[in-house]
Amino acid sequence: MRLPVLIVAAGLTLALAACNTTSQPSMGLSPASSGSPAPVAGYDWFLHQDGDNALLTYGVEESDDLRIGMECRKQSGRLALNAIAAEGAAPEIHIESGGDTERYPAEAEPSEVNDGLFLTAEAKAGDPVFQRFRRLGWLAVWEGNERHAYAPHPGSRDRVERFFAFCG
Question: Tens digit of pLDDT for each residue in 70-93?
Fold first, then answer.
């Protein structure tokens, strides 16, 4: 009698997993999932270094369409996080990588580029979620119950490691 229930549960799990493998920036995987999301066409991680400062952003190259950004000074071990959020969202940046999650209290102000908020927060480069991001190469940002996963395209994953090596 238990075998049919297990088969139905396994089938439901596979069906839900299949629904979660979209190529959209928003992915509905659970926070405990360590499965790698797929890269999204047109979006990627970009690294910009200028003297003692570095910026790692996820978005569309050379545009205002940025989903998250991280800035640091060389070997400082400190990050300045920037993200966008919907109007009325909690003033925090909630990120995840491979099941590690963290919430960073943020300053919120109206965005000048889109409808919503521009969030800024501070973090330590050595926090577990960033160390996991450094190993896996992808990061997700949560907005309420919605998860937006940001994966690198082949050939750009090393930008994440170079950023964290620079930041210390």
Answer: 999 999 999 999 999 999 899 999
For residues 51 and 102, the answer to whether their CB atoms sit within 8 Å is no
Structure tokens at 49: 């270094």
User: How far is residue 142's CA from residue 124's CA, in Å, rounded to a whole number?
Assistant: 19
Q: What is the pLDDT of residues 50-77, one digit of tens each?
A: 999 999 999 999 888 899 999 999 999 9
Specify the DSSP class assigned to residue 26.
Answer: B
- Give the closest residue to 109 by CA, choosing from 142, 87, 94, 93: 87
- Sequence-ordered list of residues with C-beta below 8 angstroms from that of 156, at least 6 positions apart, any chain: 44, 45, 46
Give CATH for domain 2-167. Answer: 2.60.40
- Give the residue extent of every domain in the chain: 2-167
Name residue 110's beta-bridge partners.
Answer: 117
Helix axes 158-167, 128-136, angle to 10 degrees: 140
Contact present, 120 and 81 (Cβ < 8 Å): yes
Measured distance CA(135)–CA(78) in Å, rounded: 18
Chain center to CA of 138: 6
